[in-house]
Amino acid sequence: MIQLYSDWKTVVLGLLGVVVASMLPFGRLAAAPNLYGQIVSIKDGDTLTLLASEKVQHTIRLAEIDAPEVAHGKGKPTQPYGEASRKSLAEMCFSQSATVVLVGTDIHQRLLGHVECNGVRANLEQVRRGLAWVYVKYARSPEMFAAERDARLARRGLWADLNPVEPWLWRKKHLSQVKEAR
């Protein structure tokens, strides 16, 4: 009787795990296909547009990173290193063939993904160059954290600044000032 209960409990817990995993967003996205195409625009250091093989454009936000802000619109400021970060991503990916491994969507309904342009892992390379932070709130890859640590120690890119400000904090401070000035 005890053995039967133990086996029944194992089966139920296993099935419950499968059901819960299938309901999670990453469970559904794991089956999502990768996107393939050409990069046709670079918005900033962590956002680009992919023209997929079916001639559909997709805005892709690079997963696990947050790059310094670039001004988009009149009266909006650019964060230090924002333009350098955008240029770095453009150098790697603009007009290049790319593969995007999808991992979800963000609060603005942009696709989130890991982007590879001609064999270069753009998300990781932006961090390695010191032109993006690991977005700690969403990052999972130990490799990203190691790349940021190395960039900090080498004082590459934005880490050459004495007090670099994380984009999520910079946005909160500066973009609220723009709204107040109106």
General description of the model:
This protein is α+β, with helices and mostly antiparallel strands and 182 residues long. It folds into two domains: 1-30; 32-181, Beta Barrel (OB fold (Dihydrolipoamide Acetyltransferase, E2P)), CATH 2.40.50.90. Helix content is 41%, strand content 24%. It has helices at residues 2-23, 25-29, 82-93, 122-128, 142-154, 167-181, and strands at residues 35-44, 47-52, 57-62, 65-66, 97-105, 111-117, 120-121, 133-134. The strands form two sheets. A five-stranded mixed β-barrel has the order 1-2-3-6-5. Helix 4 runs parallel beside helix 5.
Structure in a nutshell:
The chain is of the alpha+beta class. It has helices at residues 2-23, 25-29, 82-93, 122-128, 142-154, 167-181; strands at residues 35-44, 47-52, 57-62, 65-66, 97-105, 111-117, 120-121, 133-134. The chain is built from six helices and eight strands, in the order ααββββαβββαβαα.
Q: What tags apply to this protein structure?
A:
182 residues, OB fold (Dihydrolipoamide Acetyltransferase, E2P), two-stranded antiparallel ribbon, five-stranded mixed β-barrel, alpha+beta, 6 helices
Topology:
Elements: H1 2-23, H2 25-29, E1 35-44, E2 47-52, E3 57-62, E4 65-66, H3 82-93, E5 97-105, E6 111-117, E7 120-121, H4 122-128, E8 133-134, H5 142-154, H6 167-181
Helix pairs in contact: 4-5
Helical content, roughly? 40-55%
Number of strands: 8
In total, the number of domains comes to 2
Using the CA coordinates, give the radius of gyration: 20 Å
CATH class of the largest domain: Mainly Beta
Judged by helices, strands and strand pairing, the structural class is: alpha+beta
* N-end to C-end Cα span: 74 Å
**Average pLDDT number:** 83
Portion in strands? 15-25%
CATH architecture of the largest domain: Beta Barrel
Here the CATH topology of the largest domain equals OB fold (Dihydrolipoamide Acetyltransferase, E2P)
Helical element count? Answer: 6
> Strand order of the main beta sheet, please?
1-2-3-6-5
- Runs with pLDDT <50, length 5+? 1-30, 178-182
**Biggest sheet, open or closed, and with what strands and sense?**
5 strands, mixed, barrel
What is the ordering of alpha helices and beta strands? HHEEEEHEEEHEHH
